[in-house]
Each structure stands twice: as structure tokens, then as C-alpha cells.
Amino acid sequence: MVNRGTHIECVPGAIDRDMCRAIVEAGDRLRLESDSVDTGVAHQVDRRVRDSDIAYFPVDGRHRPFYEKMTAIFQAANQAAWQYRITRLEPLQYTAYGRRQHYNWHTDTFDRAYPEGSELAGLFRQLSVTVQLTEADEYEGGDLQIMRSQLDNEITTFSDAREIGTAIVFPSFMRHKVAPVAKGRRRSLVGWFLGPLYV
User: What residues are paired with 95 via a beta bridge?
Assistant: First the structure.
């Protein structure tokens, strides 16, 4: 029986090389913006927590194949491991990490549901999906790490899951990080699947 709380699905070859290249080409055409964490003090940012370049794929016909593929990856993983009731997918994030860029320990969840009046009102992030878009030999460092247990600091480092097209699916409340990139550029496609609070 799967331990739903700490299970991680790793799916090699979830997206083929041709589609990965198409995602990168489309992502590089978007306006990439430097992303960091707002400290809440006069719009100061803290790049010690996060330093990366991001853009979001519009939900339109041109990018529909990316959404359909990510939804298929999620549905298979969710059916096999969690069986959460998911109702929405947030816009897909294209993320690039260059030399020394990183994302320190964090979760993808928030303290409360999306607020009333928003398109996602009442929903929580339940599952996170990240797909490697870069060939393994095109960058050094930048490994995804996920903390399975905060009690005993049990951490899984996905250094053996760097092959292009590999998808990693995990509950959004799990703490995770992207280690600093030492060389090259690491690209990924990230999605968050939403529903009522873990039902």
C-alpha cells in the first residue's frame, strides 16, 4: 500500500524529446522574468531563497498539447498513488536556472485556500509536477531534492532522474528545493493541480 503522505512518483520518459524541445522553444519565446521571494518590506526581494527565471504558458490552442500532456502525466500518477479529487490545473510555469541560480527549501502550498472572488476560490494546491526539459549533460548541479520527513531530515536527491522528459510528481505540501546550478542552464516545466483540501 502506498504511503500517500510521502510518496513520490518518478516517471522516466514521460515527455518525449521532441515535445521537450518544443516546450523549450516556446518557453524561450515567452518573456522570462527574474523570480525571487518578496520579503514584504518595501518590495525587497531575497535571492537567497529563490533565484530563477520564469514565465507562464497561456492557456490557448498553441500550448494546449503541453497542458494535455501534463494532465495525462498527473492523472496516471494520481490514480496510481493518491487518488486525490482534483478539479483544476494552474497555468504551467516554464522555469530556467542559470549558473548559481537555485530555489531553497519551500513548499508549493499556501496557508489558506485561494480567496473568494478568484477563479480558483476555495481550492488548494494538492500535487506538484516537474518535468526535466534539459539533457542531463547540459548542466551541472541543479538537482531536485525532496524532504520526505522533517522529523529525521530524510531527503531524496533526484540526481539519477535528470534525463530529459523525466517527470516527478509529489504532494505539494512536501518541502523541496533546487540546488544551485554550477554550470549550464537547467530548464523545467512545472504544474500544480488543485482541489478541495486533500480529499
Answer: 54, 188
Give the total number of structural domains in the chain: 1
Distances (CA, A) of 118 to 76, 113, 122, 172, 190: 28, 10, 9, 20, 21
The cell numbers describing 166, all together, are: 523525466
Q: Tell me whether residue 3 is in a domain.
A: no
Q: How far is it, in rounded angstroms, from Cα 43 to Cα 104?
A: 19
Residues 83-136 have pLDDT tens digits of: 999 999 999 999 999 999 999 999 999 888 999 999 999 999 999 999 999 999
Residue type, 128: S
Domain with 15, as residue range(s), is 9-195
> What average pLDDT does range 133-155 have in this prediction?
90
Q: Label residue 42 by pLDDT band (50, 70, 90).
A: very low
**The domain that contains 131 carries what CATH number?**
2.60.120.620
pLDDT digits (tens, 9 = 90+) for 161-172: 899 999 999 999
